[in-house]
Amino acid sequence: HTLCILPLMHTLTMSLPIMESNKHKPWIETEYQGIVMENDNTVLLNPPLFALDKDAPLHYAGEICGFRVHNGPSGSGSVQFEAVVLDRSTGEGLVRSKEPLDCESQREHSFTIQAYDCGEGADGVNSKKSHKATVHVRVNDVNEFSPVFVERRYEASVPEGRLFDRIVRVEALDADCSPQYSQICFYDIITPNVPFAIDNDGNIKNTEPLDSKHQRVHTFWVTAFDCGKNRAQADAQVVVTVKPSCKPGWIGWTKRVEYTPGSGSIPLFPSLHLETCEETVWNIQATVELQTGHIGKGCDRDSYSDRSVRRLCGAVRGEVDLLPPPSPAANWTSALPTLPSSDSSLVFSFNGSNHVAVVPDSVVSALSGDHFTLQLWMRRGGASIQPATTQTRGNRKEEETIVCSTVKNDDSFSHYSLSVHGCRLSLFYWPDVSAARPVKFLWKLEQVCDSEWHHLSLSVQFPSVTLYVDGVTFDPALIHDNGAIPNPAPRQRMFIGACWGKTLKFMLSEFTYVGGYHGLLSGVTVRPGSVEPHSVVECLYACREGLDFGDLETLGSGMKVHVNPSQSVLVLEGDDIESFNRAVQQVTYRNSLRFATPGVRPLKLTTSLRCFNEESCLSLKQLEGYLVVLQPDAPQISLSGVGPHLARPAPEFEGPRGVPLFPELRIVCSLSHAVNTAAQGMEGGALMSDAVAHTLDGCEVQPLGEELNPEREELLVDMDVVRERGLEIINTTAYIAITGAESISVYEDVLRSVRYRLAKGSARFERRFRLSCSEMNGRYTSNELTLEVNFLHSLDSLYHPSHLLASQQQFLHPSHHAGELSGHTLPNPHRNSVVPGAATVIIMVCVGFLVVMVILGVFRIRSIHRRGEGARGGAKEGSSQWDDSALTIIVNPMESYESRMGICAENEGEGEEDEEVAESPDDASDDQRIIIKKEGRDGSARRY
């Protein structure tokens, strides 16, 4: 083996010096992406520049000696960039620009790069190079340029009196290469208080109509900013010349008008005037229309119930509500659907089929006679109902009956029905169903079919009939009719929303009905007797808001003003432009309600002109705007003057008149609103509260906890005061509700007369009541006043054995009773009455019980001792021996007034030592004694 190995080693040693040491080429990526800033020369490459050689770690052969840059596609990359080696061993390199780069001249560069290793020695013999890699370099922009306007001066001309979307456009440019710095982000007008605005695109418009008489030329300066916030080097001047022009129409129209409740009347068009461009006109007519159909029943009226409004308008009393709110006493409207209303009225919906109200006979019996007044609010359902032009008997739509009634008059029966048919309203009246002929009164009214709320008042004083629609009188056409409906049966009955007949339309109860009404009804009342005066009817319908004219004396010659009854339409007519302009500026909006309904009222102005040359006469378009009624200041209704506790002896509550609950009640209504005190030398603002005259419409007294037990307790009200004021009252075991629009003083008098009465022996520990009031039919409510009623039971001196008097005397302090009940209204106590506090009673009972237990212990010890003597034969049986097993203790503590004033028991126990105590057992009642009953073995008993 040795002879074979030695020749092989010699062969390998001789071959090593002739082996090549630099076998491999350097390796780099095939493509690089680079970024360089304008103000920097280092290129950031992705991925980083590294050259790798597999000959590493050989010295020279595995090291990178350099990079070479070659021309790219443009042929200029090698001149502007170079690559250097940062670390020969790792092959890390760096690409940089030889000279500053300019993004604006060339934004992107491309070239190739190669890596060279160090060869086989220090002189670079046999060095190898890598493949060529492409390098793309992007030059990032620096915000070095500011915007420059294309023109230094911009001029434009516009006609006066108009608003333009664009008058002139200014333009600025930025020389930066990138979108970030070359774009203009926004323009700005640097001249203050000019009626112009500029957008981000440089478009200039006017913000208000220009007037050449006021200022003919407007000069202002604008500037520009790029997105790098560089401002323009020089601002641009803009000159706008206003050309006199004339366009016929209204000038000074304000689309939005605000009204603050309580402001009275405000002008709607204080600066409005008509421009006719010197056109000769001989007649001008302007119609101002205020739309209030969505506010309640057509406008802002008193926010009280219909019955309260009748009282406020002075209507004759005695009306009967045919559609009252559903209640146990008025249940015939419980099946009718109701709709929400923005005012205080209750709106009933009728669908023309199964919605009918059957008025009870007890209500109908009070409506006899041929003189009566029927009033109601009506709104036909759906769109406008117009009568057909051609109708036949087969397809003619039947009448819709609103009210159908047969009443008894002495020994006969009369019948009437109120119906609508298309745009016609008819009253069918039969004075005597057995003898007289029926008569039909017919009115053709647009108000019946316009799907708006209207107030109808029908005064019948047969054969005279008067109809008021929205306070305006309408004359009927008399039509004698023998067979519009079958002869009514001589039976007393009344229906709302339909009538009866032979045709089977729908069934309800035992009746068959026809002519169902489709629409809304509210406030349907009938009052027998004399007809309602016209002034009352006008008051019931009168709007508290509407259009008005400021001062009729300022009208010029030839001017006319007309306002419709609802004050929703005002018409001006004249022939002189100047007088007409002054008249338009006198048109006002008024609202007499202190708490007006907030919301938007659409407003329209329609103008028609007549010229001598009718062919070339001016035509003006309709102007539309709106009136905004702001939210009124909420009133604060404060109830006071009643303490949280009312304490009286129980016998006073058991008297025939009971005890008044609120004898010193005070009701105050005020408004809290912001006032500006800066003019008075004060800082900021303040809140001011003004006492105002209000009209309440309801108060309620409610027992808290359990309802009143009618067998033991009741609330009494002075009914004379209630009837005298025309108020209504509902007195149940759950509450007392007093309703009706009246002044605060009247409600104070009525509530002060509310008394609480108990039956004999029904006094309890306490009873709580809550009082609250409201106005505007519950729109504004008061604070809730809670009253706790305490019943003071008579506490006569207690009867005790002589050995208990001394121990309990210290807990009876008649001289301190007034202090214990401070804050309550108390009568003078009986000289033998004691009114202890809650703590005193508890301590007294506990100590008394302890003394009793001690006495029982003594008795038990003595009993055991005596039984022991009896067992020895030395004891005598007598009445003093007792059987402990039959011992019974009956404790009936006194009922006490539970004070809530937090008086400590220690203070209750301190006081004078010479206080009065019971001197005789006769002074103690059965409810105030501590009874110890002991039964003996022989059946005898003793009581202590």
TrEMBL record:
Disordered: annotated segments: 903-944
Cellular location(s): Endoplasmic reticulum membrane; Golgi apparatus membrane; Postsynaptic cell membrane
SMART domains named among the record's database cross-references: CA
Gene Ontology molecular function: calcium ion binding
Any one biological process term the GO annotation gives: positive regulation of synaptic transmission
UniProt cross-references to Pfam families, sorted A to Z: Cadherin, CLSTN_C
CDD domains, per database record: Cadherin_repeat (cd11304)
InterPro entries (UniProt xref): Cadherin-like_dom, Cadherin-like_sf, CLSTN_C, ConA-like_dom_sf
Record's compositionally biased regions (Acidic residues): 907-925
Membrane topology: Single-pass type I membrane protein
Region forming the signal peptide: 1-15
Keyword set, alphabetical order: Calcium, Cell adhesion, Cell membrane, Endoplasmic reticulum, Glycoprotein, Golgi apparatus, Membrane, Postsynaptic cell membrane, Repeat, Signal, Synapse, Transmembrane, Transmembrane helix
Cellular component terms per the entry's GO annotation: cell surface; endoplasmic reticulum membrane; Golgi membrane; postsynaptic membrane
Domain called Cadherin: residue spans: 28-149, 150-269
TM segment ranges: 834-859
Comp. bias regions, Basic and acidic residues: 926-944
Family indicated by similarity: Belongs to the calsyntenin family.
Protein name: Calsyntenin-3
Source organism phylogeny: Eukaryota, Metazoa, Chordata, Craniata, Vertebrata
